[in-house]
């Protein structure tokens, strides 16, 4: 059931007029048209902070120079070089450890020091922190994203790369990582780690996701 009371925002926009600043095409609810100038300025001021400025300039340069040419793996290596990162942390899913090893090799070939920690490190049973025993169907021990972040913090990494942490576990990793984080792989066990596959097939295989849901 569609909720008519929802506030319209960019996700409801067909104009995309902010891309070129075409003022006459902004819809009535447009977030640019109705922007709070103080909030906009507050955000712009943040880019003046040294680290934020360095990241934005280098991210923009990588995008501009290699647009449509470099893969995400290559862009990540290039970005890490340009921000002057020396030690890269990898927070990986155990199930993607082989892929993480390959990425680590690529990083090492490019002169980086690499330190990785997998999600099951610490080998703590799920039930120890109150996860229900029924969840042991996907493994006895818990993923430990806070430990992953804390161990990479201890290793003083300059940039952390997430490889396939579960939904929610990634959220906690982002929350506790002291170094900047970029995500190389978003885990999706069904689509070969390509969440967009569902969105591309929404009119066919995944059309049930768009069916009205009964109110609970
Ligand atoms: S800022 Fe305005 S024009 Fe841009 S996507 Fe949002 S609603 Fe559309």
Identify the bound ligands.
iron/sulfur cluster
Helix/sheet category: alpha/beta
The parts where pLDDT drops under 50 for at least 5 residues are none
The dominant shape is: globular
- Number of E strands: 4
Fraction of residues in helix: 25-40%
Strand content: 5-15%
**Number of distinct helices:** 7
CATH homology group of the domain at 71-185: Diphthamide synthesis DPH1/DPH2 domain 1
CATH class of the domain at 71-185: Alpha Beta
Spatial strand sequence of the major β-sheet: 2-1-3-4
Largest sheet: 4 strands, parallel
Global mean pLDDT: 96
SSE topology:
Elements: H1 37-46, H2 50-66, H3 72-82, E1 87-92, H4 97-109, E2 113-118, H5 145-154, E3 159-163, H6 169-176, E4 180-185, H7 196-200
Parallel strand pairs: 1-2, 1-3, 3-4
Helix pairs in contact: 2-3, 5-6
The chain binds iron/sulfur cluster (SF4).
Provide a descriptive summary of the structure in words:
It is a single chain. With 216 residues, this protein is α/β, with parallel strands linked by helices. It has a domain at 71-185: Rossmann fold. 34% of the residues lie in helices and 11% in strands. The protein contains seven helices and four strands. The chain has helices at residues 37-46, 50-66, 72-82, 97-109, 145-154, 169-176, 196-200; strands at 87-92, 113-118, 159-163, 180-185. Helix 4 links the parallel strand 1 (87-92) and strand 2 (113-118). Helix 2 packs across helix 3 and helix 5 (145-154) packs parallel to helix 6 (169-176). It is globular, with a radius of gyration of 21 Å. It binds iron/sulfur cluster (SF4). The site of iron/sulfur cluster has 11 residues, from loops.
């Amino acid at each position: 059931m569609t909720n008519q009371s929802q506030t319209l925002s960019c996700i409801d926009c067909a104009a995309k007029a902010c891309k070129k600043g075409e003022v006459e095409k902004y819809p009535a609810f447009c977030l640019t048209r109705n922007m709070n100038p103080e909030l906009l300025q507050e955000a712009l001021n943040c880019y003046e902070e040294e680290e934020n400025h360095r990241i934005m300039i280098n991210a923009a340069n990588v995008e501009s120079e290699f647009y449509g040419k470099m893969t995400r793996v290559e862009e990540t290596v290039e970005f890490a070089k340009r921000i002057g990162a020396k030690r890269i942390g990898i927070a990986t899913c155990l199930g993607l450890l082989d892929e993480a090893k390959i990425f680590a090799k690529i990083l090492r070939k490019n002169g980086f020091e690499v330190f990785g920690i997998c999600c099951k490190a610490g080998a703590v049973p799920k039930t120890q922190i109150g996860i229900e025993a029924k969840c042991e169907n996907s493994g006895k021990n818990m993923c430990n994203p806070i430990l992953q972040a804390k161990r990479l913090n201890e290793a003083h990494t300059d940039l952390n790369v997430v490889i396939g942490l579960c939904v929610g576990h990634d959220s906690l990793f982002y929350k506790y990582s002291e170094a900047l984080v970029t995500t190389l792989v978003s885990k999706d066990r069904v689509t070969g780690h390509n969440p967009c596959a569902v969105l591309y097939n929404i009119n066919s295989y995944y059309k049930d996701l768009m069916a009205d849901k009964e109110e609970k």
